[in-house]
Amino acid sequence: MSSRADAPIGVFDSGVGGLTVARAILDQLPGEQLRYVGDTAHGPYGPLPIAEARRHTLAVTDQLVADGVKLLVIACNTASAACLRDARERYDVPVVEVIVPAVRRAVATTRNGRIGVIGTLGTIRSRAYEDAFAAAPDVRVTSVACPRFAEFVERGNTSGRQVLGLAQSYLEPLQRADVDTLVLGCTHYPLLTGVLQIVMGDGVTLVSSAEETAKDVFRVLTELDLLRGSLAEPAHEFLATGPAEPFTRLARRFLGPELGAVLGSPARAFSLDEPQPAPPDVATGSRYGPSLSGSVNGSTPAAAATPHER
Amino acid sequence: MSSRADAPIGVFDSGVGGLTVARAILDQLPGEQLRYVGDTAHGPYGPLPIAEARRHTLAVTDQLVADGVKLLVIACNTASAACLRDARERYDVPVVEVIVPAVRRAVATTRNGRIGVIGTLGTIRSRAYEDAFAAAPDVRVTSVACPRFAEFVERGNTSGRQVLGLAQSYLEPLQRADVDTLVLGCTHYPLLTGVLQIVMGDGVTLVSSAEETAKDVFRVLTELDLLRGSLAEPAHEFLATGPAEPFTRLARRFLGPELGAVLGSPARAFSLDEPQPAPPDVATGSRYGPSLSGSVNGSTPAAAATPHER
């Protein structure tokens, strides 16, 4: 295994959204090391002119490549729309972005050939998704900019009446277009799948560009024999071009819960030979521990009342 | 908002796998509190007889419900197969499990009506997925037990030749059956999507029971008006019926990367008015900071070499 394979994967985003991509990569590839840069000094890119998003992106990705990453992930839809081709031409490491993987998945998924795309203003205005769908002429693409979604996600406001109403108004054109597949064309949106699925209905399949991009990273590293071989515990770096706060606070939200203390039972031998678990009130020791299943009473703690029907 | 709505969501699994469900729930509902119990004293349930898995499960879920959770998630396919109906009858809180949500999604996704299911021995032997697909008589279901996958995931061995070979041999009957949709019927398997997608090919859509279950939790809490209203920072509990180690070590892997220290730049005003970013070697201050984009040189750091083609 070459030392190149042991180099980190570079992940770029305009802010914290790309952390959904970073996390999906580490889900699949827990032995890899990441160097993540969020360009919070200039992001969010959504409202910026393409040329400006491009300059900001290349400034950071130039540095990532110069620092020796083995693969570059442009984990931002707006930046991918702005400069994928520049990045491919510019760097001698493989470049993975977020648009093509999601488009490939959407084309493989749709049944009626009607696909919706939601994203930032910058992404939708760039028509980058329409371009990426060009090879599937039978597909009808309907794109809608959802400029306020990212802000709702960053506030943690992803359930309840307000975001539901917002989603209903944004997604109405997609429902009218009868799409059966919806591409989440912004790395913030995997944190909105609950509300998006409710509004679009069960018949619509959501495609996460974060998850599909991670699969692409997996595939490229496998094909190029660039999987990290080192057995040393991987170390990740998270960098922001702006102040460490509020990046840190938001990033925790995007990376998901941290474990904290775990309450466990002491290890011991245990055999289960009674048909009924004990009711909770006779439990001794750790309430959830092996001792619970061993003591017996026979009554069931909660009588059947209002079983939940779906 | 009632105090019932402020109660935690109970999440049960035989071990750490249900943490992929827990994480997906908190992605959608960052304001909710979780009480997670992994029955590591008796898990994994995969190889157990159904009756035994049922007794172990109910012993823990009785306690969770007695402790006042507002909704119970059976975040384990084997446990869901063993005792969904018991749990529905037994408890006066809504119960969400992992099989029905994934089946609903798979039926909405398939184009050729051929769906594959992979899971533990216990899950596959129970034929719980076949039962859940009963309402879709045109669907042909092919189920395959993949007993060693969970152990590979827990070792972090999810890429490279060994797991690829294992996946190729497990999935061969599903390829022969020409499935276009594959249900990941075990909460460990979302950490295998990279290798599963490579082996099954791009034309196959993977359905994660973790993600679909989280959407179901979102839907049920929304419909029943049980979303947490408290603005206090949510606190989660992670419990194991066995020793805290190795649950803790594995759980970190399943919950994904933690942030650690973030390297940021001091906040300052910055205007971008030069077309070319500086090459890395003239960067001053924070390498990725705003100062980088402000200094100008005009050369591109890496000449076009071997652009990556897909």
TrEMBL record, chains A, B:
Its EC number is 5.1.1.3. It is an enzyme of class 5 (isomerase). Substrate binds at residues 13-14, 45-46, 77-78, 187-188. Keywords: Cell shape, Cell wall biogenesis/degradation, Isomerase, Peptidoglycan synthesis. The active site is at residues 76, 186. Pathway: Cell wall biogenesis; peptidoglycan biosynthesis. One of its GO terms (molecular function) is glutamate racemase activity. One of its GO terms (biological process) is peptidoglycan biosynthetic process. It comes from the Bacteria. It catalyses: L-glutamate = D-glutamate. SUPFAM superfamilies: Aspartate/glutamate racemase (SSF53681). Residues 270-310 are annotated as: Disordered. Provides the (R)-glutamate required for cell wall biosynthesis. Belongs to the aspartate/glutamate racemases family. This is Glutamate racemase. It comes from Gandjariella thermophila.
